[in-house]
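Hi R.,

As promised on Friday, here is the backbone we talked about, encoded as structure tokens. Could you run it through your design pipeline when you get a chance and send me back a sequence?
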């Protein structure tokens, strides 16, 4: 069983290395046991997300997601199937992670099957909590923290900040898949339409709309940054790297808001590594 468990964790690590384009640079700063647990949690979330994003019929996606729910339930009852759930079961037990976070994550991902527009930010915030804040809440149970109520709130805020940045980064790509995450009432307020997004129209309306979205994301980053002092140093470094990478992406979007209407804004591997090194040093000396 021990050998199978280690093989399961290695599987999750390989998946994270292949798929976690930004998160992986934070993961590598964690102590080995916590890093393994984060790989397992990431692998669970990644496979859940893949079901919804695969090029399948909606009915098949719903069927696979229902099967994933069933496998999670079996895992929580002591009968994991496959390497991801084997590693996840060990992680949940070892770090006493509340199971509701995993159910909420599936609920959030499932929204992409049924919801393609968000009337208000309150609606969008619920989605961001489901697909991103839950990951933060799972992660801090692995990291360890003090002042639980504050730590959980700041982890929730940071998850929303990261997801809002993803939404801005992927705005055109999502629109081409008939998913518009920018709240509809805000698009109406700034007089910028879905057709404008698909057409890549950069004008004064798009500039003001993007400035408004960037400022909101920055506010959530500021709240999420308050999580750092509540974490152990190595875990603090991991979290700070994610903040730094996504914060830099947000800065680039702010500097050239029209760019996201044409292409995905990103950082190079060397830039991410430099940020990871900087945040590790900072965490060790503060």
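Update: got your reply. Pasting your designed sequence below so it's all in one thread:
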């Amino acid at each position: 069983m021990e050998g199978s468990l280690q093989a399961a964790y290695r599987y999750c690590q390989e998946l994270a290395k292949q798929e976690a384009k930004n998160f992986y640079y934070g993961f590598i700063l964690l102590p080995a046991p916590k890093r393994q647990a984060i790989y397992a949690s990431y692998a669970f979330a990644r496979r859940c997300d893949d079901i919804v994003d695969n090029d399948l019929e909606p009915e098949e996606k719903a069927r696979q997601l229902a099967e994933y729910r069933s496998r999670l339930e079996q895992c929580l009852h002591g009968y994991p199937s496959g390497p991801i759930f084997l590693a996840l079961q060990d992680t949940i037990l070892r770090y006493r992670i509340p199971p509701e976070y995993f159910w909420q994550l599936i609920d959030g991902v499932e929204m992409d099957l049924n919801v393609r527009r968000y009337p208000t930010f309150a609606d969008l915030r619920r989605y961001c909590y489901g697909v991103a804040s839950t990951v933060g809440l799972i992660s801090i149970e692995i990291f360890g923290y003090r002042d639980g109520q504050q730590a959980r709130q700041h982890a929730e805020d940071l998850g929303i900040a990261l997801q809002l940045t993803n939404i801005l980064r992927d705005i055109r790509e999502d629109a081409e898949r008939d998913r518009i995450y920018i709240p509809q009432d805000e698009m109406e307020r700034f007089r910028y339409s879905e057709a404008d997004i698909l057409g890549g129209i950069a004008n004064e309306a798009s500039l003001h709309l993007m400035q408004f979205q960037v400022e909101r994301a920055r506010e959530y980053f500021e709240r999420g940054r308050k999580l750092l002092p509540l974490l152990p140093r190595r875990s603090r470094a991991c979290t700070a790297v994610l903040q730094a990478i996504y914060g830099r992406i947000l800065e680039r979007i702010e500097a050239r808001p029209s760019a996201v209407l044409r292409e995905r804004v990103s950082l190079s591997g060397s830039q991410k590594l430099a940020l990871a090194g900087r945040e590790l040093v900072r965490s060790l000396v503060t």
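One thing I noticed while checking it: The radius of gyration is 19 Å.

Thanks again,
M.
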